[in-house]
From TrEMBL:
Biased composition (Low complexity): 202-214
KW Phosphoprotein (keyword) present: yes
Modified residues (4-aspartylphosphate): 53
Protein's name according to its UniProt entry: Two-component system response regulator
Transmembrane segment boundaries: none
Source taxon at top rank: Bacteria
Organism in which the protein naturally occurs: Cystobacter fuscus
UniProt xrefs under SUPFAM superfamilies: CheY-like, EspE N-terminal domain-like
Domain Response regulatory intervals: 4-120
Amino acid sequence: MAPRILVVDDNPELLSLLVQLFEDEGYEVSGVGRGAQAVDRARGQPPAAAVLDLLLPDMMGYQVADALRKQQPELPLVFITGVFKGGKHAVEARQKYAPADYFEKPFDAARLLEAVRRVAPYSKPVPAPEAAPAGGDAFEEVDLDIDVEEEGFQDPLELTGRVKVTGGNLTAEIRGANLTAAPLVPSGPAALVRPPPPPGGRPAQPRPAGVAPQSSRRGELRDNLPALITAFYLSRETGELGLQRGKVKKVVYFERGMPVFALSNLLADRFGSFLVRVGKIKPEQLEDAAAVAAASQRRTGDVLVERGLLKDTERMYYVGQQVKAIIYSLFAWEDGTWVMSFKEKAAAESIKLDAHPANLIVRGVKKLYKPERLRGMIQPEDRLIPAVAPAYQLEDVDLERWETELLPRIDGHRTVAELLALANRPEPLVQGFLVALMSLGLLERQG
């Protein structure tokens, strides 16, 4: 029987990711978000090891450790912290609890897994092949290779002209004029032509005999996109975050916690369509190039370069902007479903985005959250304070001058209404800034 691992963290998205991490290795996992719940769970289902966040809503992680050790004096402990940082805390923890390891957020999930393996060794058996579940997986049924059109009007999306990308061994920061990705208006059937996949691209890989499908965690999308992105960042995980709303499916790929690529089955998100939306090429030029690409089994981008409509040196810039646009567009989703899994598909991409998730979250919230949505997330009478255990550091975020001037005044003494008056900026702009910093875990409600 597989050893049971108790995982305790009050961040539900990070908890979900960690549970999946250990379940993929074959462990039985109990994941809880409160200290008292962890103690009760361990009493009924004694774990072989416990992974404890040190700052919990109802009690400190060290108090949980004390209670668990009373039940199981030899229980191996692994501590994770976002607030008790520095060598002193690790030394004190080792002196009192002799934990298997002590990790500071953001941490390396692979190292965390190794630490647990040392104290609760387990070799995952090779599973028998699994039949596909009846009805299939609703998320997987939506194919990224089939273009769909999104119902309803798409708002224009403003993109800064700066983008940082990597290609091969090259990392470049490319600056251009700010872009506006306008709504796409298909001009005819030719606009729906999808270019052929690149050589060695993303063909469906047959599953080796005896290997079961990789498991995943899933849930409902409810204003928690920033938390899902942050879960990958805090655990330095490599994998993918799939999001679906109706027939529209988008996937964000991560490498060691950083979002590096994105795909979509939405027609407006295709590379050629994106070039039309930002005014780089005309719709009729795309239709013509797409038809030639389909007839010659090439990519539309290659045909556009061949015809001088897109410089080869510009491709990296526009691919980076396209990836940014896909990720930003997800912040407009107020419902849907999400799936996270650990894969390394992005490794094959020749061009990758190089952007800090903190800035993507801040800009996504500020660009895409509607005023009525912001008003529902933050109330005029709320008082905000700096968070005790922020997921990011302020230096990770590019702030405007007025934002840096307002930040020291957010100390719990002023209400949101008073901060709005002090900022002397449009209400949605200030609310977007405050909600963005709350989404990063830099600010929290007092009490």
